[in-house]
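Final paragraph of the annual report: two paired records, presented back to back.
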Amino acid sequence: MSTTATTFPVTNPQARARLLDTIRFDMRGLVPVVSQQHDTREVLMLAWMNREAVEETLKTGKVCYYSRSRRELWRKGATSGQVQTLVDLRLDCDGDALLALVDQTGVACHTGRRNCFFFGLREGRLVKLTRPEVAPEELYGQ
């Protein structure tokens, strides 16, 4: 068993194909991806990838997702500058979910928060646990 991590980007097309052929994409051709900050283990977000997004992520070393609402590739940070650099990509035991260990530049959430998991149930109420670190208008030029 090899424990040496792969270096990203992955330049070998056969290596990329081996992973892509192992992933069990759903009926829509998608796989869920949990993004986690590689050094602190903070869970940043949950998103989706299709085969093309996984391949681009492996090829470039920059995380690329698939936007279900826009039905197109979503290159994380293309608009906001809040890029995720891939450190490691792991496949779960069933082959139907990915864990992307990343180095997050800035905030991960489109609301301007560090991560997307900022709602919590407190005393019977759903509350926001963190404040935005950056105004969304600054991220997206609105």
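The closing record of the year follows.
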Amino acid sequence: MSNIFFSSDHHFGHQNIISFSDRPFSSVEEMDEIMIQKWNKKISSSDSIYYLGDFGLCKPDRLREILKQLNGNIYLIKGNHDKSALSCKNRFEWIKDYYELKITDSDNDEKKQRLVLFHYAIKQWNYKRAGSFHLYGHSHGNIIDDPHELSFDVGVDCHNYYPISYTEVKEKMAKKTWKFDSSTVDL
């Protein structure tokens, strides 16, 4: 059985992201290599990963080489820095601007969990009042996590440069104080 993972904002090949996001790498080559290793340590060839944008800021040929090294079936939700990724479209299962994923989940009263996936953090999302999760990237950990919202940044800068599993997402959401409000209806 395959597992489901999420990530964003690797910025492979992007020298300036090291200082911009205060990443602990001495060079872009070291950053790329370590992040490839961390990706493959968690993700097998049969796993699915929903990638929420900004794969790389490098030439398409360089990104194509990086993508060949990464395990898993990659679903890309476009970010603002995905020009090179769009040139490598055959490596992705699909490419979309936004996606609502439904995962079968026996722990959930509904027996499924809805996740709204978008590169950017948003304040309102589909089925928010009914407990859907919103996962985003783009912010590199610069948005303060709201403990009352079922939403958070899945970018690598927030997760020690690893993708995170659906199980980890559920664990993080379980610590939040959000409560279902049956008196409200999603608009």
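The chain has one domain: 4-174. This concludes the annual technical report; the extension proposal builds directly on these records.
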